[in-house]
Design brief:
about 190 residues, two-stranded antiparallel sheet, 10 strands
């Protein structure tokens, strides 16, 4: 009986150490494949990039909070009827630069795999200047999204993939249609 208790205690100790976490800071970057909903934009993902940093704050057990601050570039292709919907001429591509702040809940499924989900806040820093009408910005200054995905943890390296779905109407031109951003983000990071 004592041997079984010792074996059980050893298994629990090894299992809890595999899931133990500590506060970490890191840098990350990767691809941002984004698109904007609405008939003014092509319904396809286009390649952009993102770069920034993250922190992992343990909450106990398998759970942690991972806030991030990232520079995010989204390249959007307009649809052929864009100029028919809005009074812009010669606009084929739109570049949107944002500061994004995801606040993710991390749940360690095992030593190597982490499930991530949470809100993401975006602040539009710069937009293509062809997208101005009467001095008014075409996109709203910020947005709110939900993000979810998986992260692979290999020693200090992180490989992540997530989907981000926008909840905010980004159209600041008028009420002709709703523009909502979505993205697939893939990248790598390293804990410092």
């Amino acid at each position: 009986m004592k041997q079984k208790l010792l074996i059980l205690a050893a298994v629990l100790f090894v299992g809890s150490s595999a899931f133990s976490q500590k506060f970490t800071l890191g840098i990350k970057g990767g691809a941002n494949m984004g698109k904007m909903s609405g008939k003014a934009f092509k319904d396809e993902f286009t390649l952009g990039y993102q770069i920034g940093g993250f922190a992992t704050i343990p909450l106990g057990g398998r759970v942690a909070i991972q806030p991030e601050v990232m520079f995010n570039q989204t390249n959007l292709d307009t649809a052929s009827q864009f100029s028919q919907v809005y009074a812009f001429r010669n606009v084929n591509n739109v570049k949107l630069n944002e500061l994004i702040i995801p606040i993710l809940l991390n749940v360690n499924l095992n030593k190597y795999l982490t499930l991530q989900a949470g809100p993401q806040f975006g602040i539009v820093m710069d937009q293509d200047k062809n997208m101005l009408e009467n001095g008014k910005d075409a996109f709203k200054s910020g947005d709110f999204s939900l993000a979810g995905g998986l992260q692979l943890n290999l020693l200090k390296f992180r490989v992540y993939g997530r989907y981000v779905g926008g909840l905010t109407n980004m159209d600041n031109v008028g009420d002709k249609e709703s523009w909502k951003a979505s993205a697939i983000q893939l990248g790598v990071g390293i804990a410092l």
